[in-house]
Amino acid sequence: MLSVKHSFLLLIGLLVTLPFRCDAFDTGIEGLSVNGYGTLGLIYNDSDNIIYRNSIEQEGRGHGFDFGVESNLGLQIDYIFNQKLSFTTQFVAIDRPEQSFNNTLKAAFFTYHIDNSFEIGLGRLFNDVFMSSEYKNVGFARLWTHLPVAFYGQLAGESYDGAKLSYHLRLGDGVLTSSVWAGRSNFPYDSNGEAKKVKFEPNFGAGLRWENQTWLLRLLYSQARINDKHDDAVAFDDALIQASKFGWPEAASIAGFTINDTWLRYITAGLSYDKNDWVIQSELSVVKSEISVHDKYASAYLSVGHRFGNVTPYFIVSKFMTLGSRETIPPAPAFVPAYQQLQTIAQAAANAFYADQNTLGIGARWDVSQTVSLKAQWDRTWVEKYGGFIFEQKNQTDKADAFNIFSLTVDFIF
């Protein structure tokens, strides 16, 4: 019997064999439209130690070839009730540790146009923290085989349950959109092959976006309170506090590893340029958390491509780093073995939260038709000492590492 993963990949393969030009399904119902997208992707990881993944939500793959990391299949259904009210729902099948209807349902929301300037969305909405968040899984909509891992891989939440109010204003030769939003969301992630999930509740923010036919500029601030009632670090923090009272006074300053009931704040800025066959895009993000170690992170990327007819070669550079040096946990009293064990665990946790990685990607996109594209990309990633964070390792080492990812994708829309 085929697994969910292999059945899903087979379905993608069948869809790719459809004629290269296809239209949305003709439902025969006025106001109802059904569209879809998908990616059939193949990667090769040349590292014997690094477990590669595009996002911390994924389980990751070791040395060799894999179809699951890059592949997905999406379906979107829209219904327009009238000129003011519409409904959108989207389902995404992708390789993930935990398969469920709730995880597959990426969007289900109503949009009401109050007037020509104001609109409000209500339901499960796209979490558009970054420029490509709304179409994160739509490979056909982006230039690269995959989103830059150093930037997009650190956050897994793609949607939230809540409301969003937007205001549109003509400004110069473009449109300025300001928005505020609030709700709650699940933040799924994988830990050594085990599916885990925390809640962002509340989760809210505000953003500005200006765009015309050439430029897109955006700025967004967001913050969320993390709810993780089953966080194992709570007991670890309690043990450190107790140790500070009985022979290891420095232990109290180390406590603070738990993420439960802490706030995560981030600000992102981005721009894109598309004119005269040049395609340029860049984003910068700074994240602030309330844990005791490595509480600030920065990530950024720059992508430059140029169209030559239907072929667009490009390069992309990205970086993800902790702002500050790697935390060194003070030594525990040698005469208490239990305290030494706590110190070892604390140092391992501090190393795991540390980030310092750089990636250079070179690739090309070939638009076979208006609905199908073929892409190839090579990524070289340098991971500094203890700097993996997004990636897991078979054997934890205290040395810098580097590895290559080769990816091929067929992206399509219908």
Descriptive overview:
This protein has 414 residues and is mainly beta. It has one domain (4-413): Beta Barrel (Porin), CATH 2.40.160. 13% of the residues lie in helices and 50% in strands. It contains six helices and 19 strands. Strands 1-4-5-6-7-8-9-10-11-12-13-14-15-16-17-19 form a 16-stranded antiparallel β-barrel. The longest helix has 17 residues, at 337-353. It is globular and about 75 Å long. Mean pLDDT is 88; it is low at 1-14 and 16-22.
In short:
The protein has 414 residues and is mainly beta. The chain has helices spanning 4-16, 101-104, 149-152, 233-245, 251-254, 337-353; strands at 32-45, 50-51, 64-66, 72-80, 85-94, 105-113, 118-126, 159-171, 174-191, 194-211, 215-227, 262-275, 278-288, 296-306, 311-322, 356-367, 372-383, 392-393, 401-413. It has one domain: Porin, CATH 2.40.160.
Task: Quickly list its features.
single chain, 414 residues, mainly beta, Porin, 16-stranded antiparallel beta barrel, 6 helices, 50% strand, globular
